[in-house]
Task: inverse folding
């Protein structure tokens, strides 16, 4: 299959292909999604094949209007409050599914369904033109960093999908906050741009942020979170602020180049500006989130780079999404000078 890259002006073409049950990747404010008609079971099945995604990992249903959620989920007053406050935007809300309204291919066989209204006018127009909500997992090969530009999608999925609607780089760079509202205790299953305290302010109730709020013997709440994620083929290590001096000395002593991803301040402090194999993350965790996945992909594509060192950001709420994705990409491993000397 030849995979097309469509410009904004070619949206009708993309809608036509989706209506026929084929796959089209679409832009959002977080990352690119892999779209299929959520009401066409055969189309939804193709998403799992194209991504190589485990079939028990449910999909997010993307809508163009909040009212569309009523068709397939039970929208509680507290869910409505959050939709009013944060939609369109990077918040996915999990609610009880209305029986018989969605394929098990969408819900992964759960009694709940995840919904989100993306803050991208082009994609909302696409959903309107198709006339059905679209499922939309991140448009990467399962386990790889999520795509923040159309070229990333093409790299992973060309030949497997009909096309991608190109709307430039996404603004946020990491996926939406996933909030479980299907039980009485609201819980964040995946951190994102919208923080727990923002949600608490609107809800007027406490939001669990432990990401482990189910007993160990129960099924994980967000099935996707149990898999290794966002990981390039290369070895990735997190680096704490205080370890960068040693990390740079170590990197510069290696025969093969080591990829370094760090803040502008660290680049200046260690006089690395303009050097090869340095990927600037900008001034803070928010800018870093926009550059994390593209940086990992950049070094993944450079054959001689075998190891990537990436800055952890300070532990504050605004950096939670960045640190969460980085920790997953690094398999929780930190750079440790002592250990690395023996590498
Ligand atoms: O920003 C985003 O959310 C992007 C863009 C494209 O919208 N989409 C995205 O989808 O990140 P995906 O499939 O890569 O991640 C969805 C996460 C997975 O961890 C999945 O297990 C979880 O949400 N999820 C989906 N439905 C669920 C449900 N009913 N209950 C619990 N977790 C669910
Ligand atoms: Mg994903």
Result:
């Amino acid at each position: 299959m030849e995979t097309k890259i469509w410009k904004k002006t070619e949206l009708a073409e993309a809608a036509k292909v989706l209506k026929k049950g084929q796959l089209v990747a679409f832009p959002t404010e977080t990352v690119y999604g892999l779209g299929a008609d959520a009401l066409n079971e055969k189309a939804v099945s193709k998403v799992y094949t194209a991504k190589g995604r485990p079939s028990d990992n449910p999909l997010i249903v993307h809508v163009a209007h909040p009212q569309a959620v009523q068709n397939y989920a039970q929208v509680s007053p507290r869910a409505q409050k959050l939709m009013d406050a944060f939609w369109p935007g990077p918040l996915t809300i999990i609610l009880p599914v209305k029986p018989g309204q969605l394929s098990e291919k969408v819900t992964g066989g759960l009694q709940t369904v995840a919904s989100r209204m993306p803050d991208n006018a082009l994609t909302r127009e696409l959903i309107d033109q198709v006339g059905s909500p679209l499922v939309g997992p991140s448009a990467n090969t399962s386990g790889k960093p999520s795509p923040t530009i159309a070229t990333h999608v093409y790299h992973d999925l060309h030949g497997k999908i009909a096309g991608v609607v190109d709307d430039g780089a996404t603004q946020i760079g990491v996926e939406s906050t996933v909030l479980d509202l299907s039980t009485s205790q609201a819980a964040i299953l995946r951190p994102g741009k919208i923080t727990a305290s923002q949600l608490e302010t609107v809800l007027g109730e406490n939001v669990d942020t432990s990401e482990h709020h189910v007993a160990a013997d129960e099924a994980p709440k967000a099935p996707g979170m149990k898999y290794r994620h966002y990981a390039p083929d290369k070895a990735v290590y997190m680096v704490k602020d205080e370890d960068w001096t040693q990390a740079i000395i170590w990197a510069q002593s290696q025969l093969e180049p080591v990829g370094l991803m760090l803040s502008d301040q660290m680049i200046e402090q260690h006089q690395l500006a303009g050097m090869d194999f340095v990927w600037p993350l900008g001034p803070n965790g928010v800018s870093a989130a926009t550059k994390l996945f593209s940086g990992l992909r950049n070094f993944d594509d450079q054959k001689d780079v075998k190891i990537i060192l990436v800055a952890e950001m300070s532990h504050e709420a605004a950096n939670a999404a960045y640190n969460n994705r980085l920790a997953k990409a690094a398999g929780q491993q930190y750079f440790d000078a002592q250990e690395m000397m023996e590498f």
